[in-house]
Design a protein that fits this description.
The protein is built from five helices and no strands. By secondary structure, it is mainly α. The chain has a domain of about 80 residues. The longest helix is centred in the middle third of the chain and has 40 residues. It is flat and about 75 Å long. The two termini are about 15 Å apart. One of its GO terms (molecular function) is nucleic acid binding.
C-alpha cells in the first residue's frame, strides 16, 4: 500500500523521481494511518492505537469544535469516556475483522479454479526481464 501511494505521488514522466520518495514517505504513512479502514469497522489505525482521532494541522489552525474545551475537568471527563469507548471499538473491530476475512475467503474460493499438476507435466512459465526496472517497479 505504501509503495502504491508513493508511486501515485511521485511519478512524473518528464521528471526523475530519485530521492523524492524520502520526502513524500511521511505524508503517505500519515494518510494511511488516518484513513478509515473497512477491516477496522470504519475506524482509523490511529484511533485503534491511541484511542482518539488524530488532530490535523487544519483543525488546529481553524479551531475545530472538537478541540475546544472550557475547562480541564471537561477535557478529562471526555478523555475517560474515550478510553471506555476504545475498549468497545477494539471488540467491534475484532468481530468486523473476522467477518471481513471470511468474506474475502469466500470471494477468493468462489473465483479460484482448482488446478492439479502431476510430475512430468509441462507448464508455461513467464520469465520477466529485469532490465530498466527500479525499486518501485512491480515484481
Amino acid at each position: 500500500m505504501i509503495l502504491d501511494a508513493l508511486k501515485k505521488r511521485i511519478f512524473d514522466k518528464n521528471e526523475k523521481f530519485t530521492g523524492k520518495w524520502i520526502r513524500e514517505l511521511p505524508y503517505v504513512v500519515w494518510s494511511l494511518r488516518t484513513q478509515p479502514s473497512k477491516a477496522l469497522a470504519g475506524n482509523t489505525p490511529f484511533f485503534m492505537v491511541y484511542g482518539s482521532e488524530a488532530v490535523l494541522p487544519a483543525d488546529l489552525q481553524f479551531g475545530a469544535p472538537r478541540l475546544a474545551f472550557k475547562n480541564i475537568a471537561e477535557a478529562e471527563a471526555t478523555r475517560i469516556e474515550e478510553i471506555d469507548l476504545l475498549k468497545e471499538e477494539h471488540l467491534n473491530s475484532v468481530i468486523q475483522s473476522a467477518h471481513y476475512q471470511q468474506t474475502l475467503c469466500r470471494y477468493h474460493d468462489r473465483n479460484m479454479r482448482p488446478r492439479c499438476f502431476s510430475i512430468g507435466e509441462l507448464v508455461l512459465r513467464r520469465v520477466l526481464k529485469t532490465t530498466g526496472q527500479h525499486k518501485l517497479s512491480p515484481p
